[in-house]
Amino acid sequence: MHELSICGSIAEIVTRRANGRPVDTIHVRVGQLRQVVPDTLVYCWTVVSADTALDGSRLELENIKARIKCRTCDGLSDLGDYPIMLCGTCDSADVEVVAGEEFLITALELAEV
Amino acid sequence: MGRFHRHDDGTAHEHDHPQGHDGTPEHEHSHLGDGARHDPQHGDGAGLIGREEHLGDHSAYETGRERIEVLERIFDENDRTAAANRADLLHHGVCAVNLMSSPGAGKTTLLRETLRRLAGTVRVGVIEGDIETSLDADRLTGFGAEITLVNTGNGFGGECHLDAPMVRSALPRLPLSELDLVLIENVGNLVCPAEFDVGEHARAMIYSVTEGEEKPLKYPVMFRSSDLVVINKIDLLPHLDFDLELFRANLRKVNPTVTTIDVSARTGDGVDAWCAWLGSQLAGSRQPAASVQ
């Protein structure tokens, strides 16, 4: 759904950073708590990059598991399929997300010229 | 320029960041160790992005000329624009609330009842982002509010959300210096709007009891990003199998600190409580600068 506009943002960043050099692979780090459907993002990238300088480049996604830290007992818990914001150790609701909200471009690999 | 924050314990304050509103997004630097970790659930949108990473310009080559380290947040551009929107609103003393819901949850009806009640006491502007927008806007005229539409059409059948640049384009069409409150009616959608900070001060979700109890678990990002969930259409409860307490339990699992208000926009039940919440947001956004650390 919003993957198209996200790809537009990715294209802007990549175009600026690549500065005219041909790009082969774009490494994107996606946290579990981002609502990005990987296959949709990859498909939208082919649509958005088509007939641009980035045509033929591909997205490589790195998924980051969501993790919370308890402010009561300092325990770390991984979130399961549902992001239930309760400490896995002491059941406290006073938790903070320490991983899983990432959404960034980490690196570009340039194509062989 | 200070920035209003709320914490899980209910305290609220403003404090300065060394790189305030000079164009550098405040959330781009680490908050670790400042003794005041911010609640990532609250609606300033910045919390949706992992704050713990310290990002900067790492454009130097790492492994020869083949690989370029980037480390750039994909929402940076949106978030910079959102910060500019927030600064403009603050400058005019205007509080903005982002209203999100699925289609048909009753946003527009609630908005109409809200405008009716606030007319004459709170000067309201409305940014209408729903795809059916002229229909919705027509239902809101006649209550003295300033209404502007955002064209969310993008050639793909309409955008599924409002983003900060869309709201930025709408702001000049509102007489901000003559307003107290801007209500931003987002596109009816439980997924995409949650991802985009538009420069609002608070986020409210309108949720209808016809939508079932399990939605907080299915769409946790939006429920988690909301400061308030209005549970609408409660007049229908006698006719439904909807288990209100189960819904609340599911909601608390993904957002333990969220406030809820039971409302029927149709009968008017709870609308005053909702208006009072809006009033509290208005007061909160105008906290005196004395609280700046």
CATH architecture of chain B: 3-Layer(aba) Sandwich
Distance between the termini of chain A: 35 Å
Number of domains of chain A: 1
Poorly predicted segments of chain A: none
Give the C-alpha Rg of chain B: 19 Å
Structural class, judged by helices and strands of chain B?
alpha/beta
Name the features.
heterodimer, A: alpha+beta, hypothetical protein PF0899 fold, three-stranded mixed sheet, three-stranded antiparallel sheet, B: 293 residues, alpha/beta, seven-stranded parallel sheet, two-stranded antiparallel ribbon, 8 helices, 10 strands, disordered C terminus
Account of the 3D structure:
The complex is a heterodimer of chains A (113) and B (293). By secondary structure, chain A is of the alpha+beta class. Chain A has one domain: hypothetical protein PF0899 fold, CATH 3.30.2320. Helices cover 25% and strands 32% of the residues of chain A. In chain A, the strands form two sheets. In chain A, strands 2-1-6 form a three-stranded mixed beta sheet, covered by helices on one side. In chain A, α1 packs across α2. The longest helix of chain A has 16 residues. The model of chain A has no long low-confidence stretch (mean pLDDT 93). Chain B is globular and about 60 Å long. Helices cover 27% and strands 18% of the residues of chain B. With 293 residues, chain B is an alpha/beta fold. The N terminus and C terminus of chain B are likely disordered. In chain B, α2 crosses α8. Chain B has one domain: P-loop containing nucleotide triphosphate hydrolases (Rossmann fold, 3-Layer(aba) Sandwich). In chain B, β1 and β2 form a beta hairpin. At the A-B interface, α1, β1, β5 and β6 of A face β3, α1, α6 and α7 of B.
